Description:
Shape: globular
Number of strands: 8
Strand content: 5-15%
Low-confidence stretches: none
Number of helices: 12
Helix content: 25-40%
Distance between the termini: 39 Å
Mean pLDDT: 96
Strand order of the largest sheet: 1-2-3-4-5-6-7-8
Amino acid sequence: MTRFDAxxxxxxxxxYKRTDFIIxxxxxGDMGPSIPSCGPKLEKDCSFxxxxxxxxxxxxxxxxxxxxxxxIMLTSASNLELLVESGAYAASSVKPAIRANDTTxxxxxxxxxxxxxxxxxxxxxxxxxxxxxxxxxxxxxxxNNDIDADYDSLLxxxxxxxxADDNGFKYFLEVFNPNVDTGxxxxxxxxxxxxxxxxxxxxxTRAQRPQFLKIPFNGPKALDELASYDPSLIVGVLGGGAGTxxxxxxxxxxxxxxxxxxxxFGRKINLAEDPLAMVKxxxxxxxGDLAPQEAVKAYHGALQAAGQKPLRALETDMEITEKVLxx
Length: 327
């Protein structure tokens, strides 16, 4: 049993405590932005001239796994295969997971314009093949108030649920905000997304439902509404853009406060000056050991001790820049 399995069991049993808050590192960007998702290869002075190679990126993934702080490591199926072959998970309590589908709204490579159109379902990864490495994957869906696009997405989701059941595969469900204009008033979009999630899951039995959700943090009201509506539905938040260090720690703090039990951060970890230090202080905030402001100061102290120049001055990194975190 991995640490994730133990935590999710306690949460489902109603025995949640802050140390059970689940942190996932989303290192699956090669199925979306691809090469840029590996992140810049930063020098000590924060300069860079190229993106990391796949080998360098996998080296960072291995380091996070070896640190043994995150509970889930999400990667593409191809990278999980290499990680398993290298022994990265041999003595680890970190749960491996794969991105199980790659809808068109994440096809955001340089110059691409696919995401200007309503999301269309697509999946590369085979559950039967990947079952040898893990029994957990992420399935993503985006609702756009477009009956044809949403209908096709839901049919594909149902096919996935049946395939997962046939292969003894568990999943968590990522639901993005609409990727195109929906005609819905902006203040209603978070509640539209909540309604779409609950409606999509209403016809599924307990065994068919996701282990947890991965959704944008659309503010305290929307998160509390969803988390309170059905306590059996475990809600997690995604990280979005890199933001400041304060944005990262504040999102963890507010998400936990308003009912989320999982945080799945990609760029907020991958684009940090020191990803391992960032993960360390994310855990401290989730556990309630540090307030967000204290975590920013501690993180900058760790950068200074390592001789790493920060991307932003401490005063700037203390600022909340993501509008939804200010509400």
